[in-house]
Amino acid sequence: FLLPGSGGEDASSTAVSDTSVTVLDKSTDADGKTVDNPIKSIQITLRDETFTFSQNEDGDLVADPYKDLPINTSEISYLVSTLKTVTATKEISSAVSSSVSSAAKAEKAVGLTAQISVTYHDDSIHSFEVGRESPTKEGYYLREVGTNPVYLVDSTFASTISQPSTAYIGRNVVTAPTVKTDDDNGQAILREIELPGRVRTSPLILRRSTADDNLNNSSNYVITKPYFRAANSSSAVVTALGTYTSVTASEVEKPYPTAEDLKRYGLDDPYSTAVFTLAVETTETSETSGESAKTSYYNIQKHTIQLGNKNDNGEYYALVYNEDQRIPV
Q: What's the pLDDT score for residue 316?
C-alpha cells in the first residue's frame, strides 16, 4: 500500500593445534557461579570509527553513541556472548607477537582490522586484536594484547567484532501493541491508515469497518477517501494491511539525519507516506440476549513511515516516527 503498482603473507608458524581453545572465560565469578552481567564496558576500534558500550541503570550494555535510539538487543547480546567466553578454533604455537618488535609490525603481520578492550565484571581489562583471514582460509587471526599466542577464530567471531556501530541500533521500527494476558479475544490490528505522497494524485484513507457502515460484503476495512466503499477483502489485501503491525528495517543508514541528508535521501518530499494507527481490537459478549458483541480498542499506537529514494540495492530510504520519537533513516 505504500507503493501502489509496484591471502597473502603469513607470519605465523605452521605448527597448529587442532583442538579448540578457550582464550578467556569471564562467564563465572571466583566461586564458579554464572554472572548475569559479565561485561561492564567495551571499546571497539575499527578502521573508520571507535565506539563504546556501557551499562545502563538496569545493568544492560548499550551503545553509547545511540543511547536515545532503539536498541538492537539481539546484536548486543550476541556481542556479550562472544566476548564473555572467547574461544578460538586453533592456537598457532609460534606467535606473531613474539617475532615482532612493534604494534606496527604486528598489524602488518596479521592484517589488523579491529581492536577490542573489555572491562569485565571483576574490573579486569582485556584487549584483543582481530586480523585478516589466514591464507589457508581456516579462520581469522586473533591475539590478546600482552600475551604471546596468536589464535584462529571463526568467521562468526570476526564478523561479530567487526560490525559498525549502527548495527547496534534497533531495526524493529514498529512493534505490534501487546494483547492483555486475560484477553482471549484480543488481536493487534491496523485500525486506520492515510496514504499521501507524490506517488499519488490524492491521499488514500482506509479504516477498520463498523456495523454502521452497512457494507454489502464482509470486508474488515472501508475506504473513506477519495471515495467511500468497502476495501477489497482478498487475502493479498488483508496480508498487506497486516504487515503494518510489525515493521523491521534491513539496516540503519543514518542515525541522526540532517536536513541535507533528508534531501539527499528524497525524504524532504517523500515518495510515499503512511500515517497509521495500531491497536488491540477485542470483543465483549453482551449478557443481554439478542445484543451483538461489543468491539473496543486499547493500547493504541500512532506511527508514520515516509519513503524516499531507492539505494543501489533497490531498497527505499525510510524515516519512521513513533508518537514523538523519530527513528533513524
A: 95
Q: Is the entire prediction scored with pTM above 0.85?
A: no
Per the DSSP assignment, residues forming a β-bridge with 175 are none
The pLDDT, as a whole number, for residue 113 is 83
- Residue carrying the nine cell digits 532503539: 70
The strand pair at 150-153 and 90-92 is best described as antiparallel
Distance of alpha carbon 126 from alpha carbon 64, whole angstroms: 20
E strand segments, the chain: 21-25, 39-45, 50-55, 61-63, 85-88, 90-92, 114-120, 125-133, 140-144, 150-153, 172-174, 187-195, 204-208, 221-225, 229-230, 247-248, 272-284, 294-310, 316-322, 325-327
Beta-carbon neighbour count of residue 103 at 10 Å?
13
Answer yes or no: is pLDDT of 12 > 50.
no
| Paired sense of beta strands 187-195 and 150-153, if any | unpaired
Cα–Cα dist 267/254, whole Å: 12
The closest of 195, 140, 168 to 307, measured between CA atoms, is: 195
